Amino acid sequence: MAAPRANRPLPPAEDYVVLGWVVAPHGVRGEIKVASEAQSLERFLALETVWLGDAHRAFTVTGARLHQGRALLLLDGVSDRDAAEGLRGQTVYLRLSEAEPLAEGAYYYHEVEGLAVIDEQGQSLGVLAEVLPTGANDVYVVQGPRGELLLPAIHDVILSIEPERGRVIVRVPAGLEPES
Question: What is the rounded average pLDDT of the residues 59-80?
Fold first, then answer.
């Protein structure tokens, strides 16, 4: 399998964005099936290189196509079903420098995870620990002193995201208020 050049250090993890994850091999030629977190599946058709797993191993993309809502990728050095099976569950990354610019007011997950979450009255609710993609809208997982709070990432709930100030201001919907 192809790997990053040993004489070059890996960029830090924040230099990558998640494109998706390998869900299964496809066929017998080493194709991998990727579930996408990208804004558009077409993004996969233009890839030249992807990085897999926590070690961010680099792979040259030698083929890409779309099939039943998933991306199918052929990677240099992955030539059979067994090799593709060995990649199952790996996160697929793109270098941040190669990512498409986001629309005004949109953020990559890594830009919001770790921010303080404050309600509109100024009360601290905790830290945005994780963003869960659900299809209709993302869900922000807030970990705080009163436990876990799940907030839908919609305009009525997420009032402002201020990475430069290290915070997200929210309006907690009725019924979701954390216990006092």
Answer: 96
